[in-house]
Design goal:
The chain has about 270 residues and is of the alpha+beta class. The protein has one domain. The chain is about 65% helix and about 10% strand. Strands 1-2-3-4 form a four-stranded antiparallel sheet. It is globular and about 55 Å long.
């Protein structure tokens, strides 16, 4: 297993790869951007404790994602915002209608959470173009190739790797959907609004903490069982087979992040030795 843990994020026209310290974005048009990453927890380690670190990490993840999307072409951003608006226009009214017609039972809530998840995937694919799933597959193949020690300049070697990965955010989202589906709405509307807010934060923190522990042991039987649903979603929904060009883009982004890490390591060794 490689020492540097790398993850990624797919877009409709490229791939972003990131390590703990650096990120790199490569697009189909050949443009490239990169930069450094810092976490508030790195400077305030006393807050790196259960629950609190998950909330902080989630906020940082949302913030980083927002900054990344602002780097996309304006037309792409408008398209994504439009389809996210369509998603909200469908799910928000439906949530009130379902509770009004069928009540607030746990089965209704579970069905609604599943519907929201599927609708979000549909809106995302429309907002970023369906090619986002192919780039997602390319991202996973490149990371798997790196972790297996394969040549990142060999498209064939990368293509031979799986497009399913245990650290994929799909697994995390699946865990969150399952926990959210277990929520039993309170009959009183105002109290339910308060309780549902607390439960959402609780579910998010538990999902992040559970996911954090599971990915430490990706080959264990427990991890395979718990993440089985997320892996199925990756295989059949959130990733598709990429072409060689998409694999090359993902590999270039990954190699750029590794090069930044290597330069940082060389600089650190130089400082220590002198």
């Amino acid at each position: 297993m490689s020492e540097i843990r790398v993850g990624g994020q797919a877009f409709g026209d490229g791939v972003l790869m990131r390590s703990k310290k650096y990120w790199a974005l490569v697009r189909e048009d050949g443009s490239t951007e990169f930069g450094s990453i810092t976490s508030w927890l790195d400077h305030h380690p006393k807050w790196n404790v259960f629950f609190i670190r998950s909330i902080i990490s989630f906020i940082e993840m949302i913030k980083f994602g927002f900054k990344t999307y602002t780097r996309m072409p304006a037309a792409n951003n408008r398209r994504l915002l439009f389809w996210m608006g369509v998603y909200a226009a469908i799910t928000l009214p439906l949530s009130f209608l379902l509770r009004g017609w069928l009540g607030g039972g746990i089965l209704v809530n579970a069905a609604f959470q599943f519907f929201c998840f599927v609708t979000a995937l549909w809106a995302l694919s429309r907002g970023m173009s369906g090619r986002v799933w192919s780039f997602h597959g390319a991202e996973h193949k490149a990371v798997n190739a790196y972790e297996q020690g394969k040549d990142l300049n060999d498209a064939g070697a990368i293509q031979s790797c799986s497009r399913v990965h245990p650290r994929c955010g799909t697994n995390l989202v699946f865990l969150l959907v399952v926990l959210m589906a277990l929520y039993f709405p309170y009959p009183e509307a105002k109290i339910n609004l308060l309780f549902s807010g607390f439960y959402t934060m609780f579910s998010l923190a538990i999902s992040l903490e559970l996911f954090r522990q599971l990915i430490r042991f990706p080959k264990s039987i427990v991890t395979r069982i718990v993440l089985f649903g997320g892996r199925l979603l990756q295989k059949f929904v959130t990733t598709k087979e990429p072409d060689d060009g998409q694999v090359a883009i993902a590999s270039k982004a990954l190699q750029l992040v590794l090069a930044l890490e290597s330069m940082d390591g060389a600089k650190t060794r130089y400082v220590v030795s002198n």
